[in-house]
Amino acid sequence: MTLLAIDGPAGAGKTTLAAKLEAEYSAHSTVRTIHMDDLYDGWEGALGGALTQILGEITSAHLDGKECTVKFFNWQLMKFDREETIVPTDYLILEGVGAAQAIVRNAGATTYWLDIDAETGLQRVLARDGAHIEKQMRQWQIQQAIHFDADQTREKCEFKLTS
After folding, report:
1. Do 4 and 105 touch, CB atoms closer than 8 A?
2. Taking the complete model, does pTM exceed 0.90, yes or no?
3. Whole-angstrom Cα distance, residue 57 to residue 97?
4. Whole-number Å distance between alpha carbons of 135 and 148
5. N or C: which end of the chain has fewer CB within 10 A?
6. Cβ atoms within 10 A of the Cβ of 39, count?
7. CB-CB contact of 92 with 6 (8 Å)
8. Contact 35, 17 (CB under 8 A)
9. Does CATH place domain 2-162 in 3.40.50.300?
10. How far apart are the first and last CA of the chain?
11. Domain boundaries of the chain, sorted by first residue
C-alpha cells in the first residue's frame, strides 16, 4: 500500500499532477485520490486540528488495509453533508494544501511540493473558480503560508517541482 501526498500553494497544479499519477498507476493498480478541498471545514477551519486528525485516520486505515469513513464538505451549502467510505487501494494520493503535513509524512508518504509564486497561483485559482472568491483566496494565501511555515512542509517534502 503506497501513500503519496502532493502539497504546495493554491494554484500550483497539485490536482493536475494527482490526476496524471492516478491515470498512470490505475493502468496496473487500484488508486484513490482524496482532495483536501473535500476535507476542509470551510474557509476558516480548513487547516486546523480537524484536518490533521482526519488525515491521521485516513493514513492509518490505508496502511492497515482497512476502510475508513470520511465526511465530505459541500462548498455550496458550506457544511459537511455526506460521508464516504474510503476502501483500501494499492495507491492512495492525497492532494491539496495540507496534504503533506507532518502526520502524513510520518506515516511514510512519498511527498511532493509544487512551487508557484503567490500572484500567479491566485490568478490561476480565480480563472478556474471565479473572481467572486478573491477576498477568500487572499486570506487563504495568508493561512496557507502560516501553515507551511509552522509545518515546514516545503522543506520536508522529498520532491520539489516548480510550475
Report:
1. no
2. yes
3. 18
4. 20
5. N
6. 22
7. no
8. no
9. yes
10. 28
11. 2-162
The pLDDT tens digits along the chain (163 residues) read: 899 999 999 999 999 999 999 999 999 999 999 999 999 999 988 999 999 999 999 999 999 999 999 999 999 999 999 999 999 999 999 999 999 999 999 999 999 999 999 999 999 999 999 999 999 999 999 999 999 999 999 999 999 998 6
d(CA 118, CA 59): 29
Dist. CA 26–CA 5, nearest whole Å: 17
Pairwise CA distance, residues 71 & 77, whole Å: 14
Alpha helices for the chain (secondary structure H)? 14-26, 36-39, 49-64, 102-105, 118-129, 134-151, 153-156
Count of all residues that appear for the chain in the document: 163
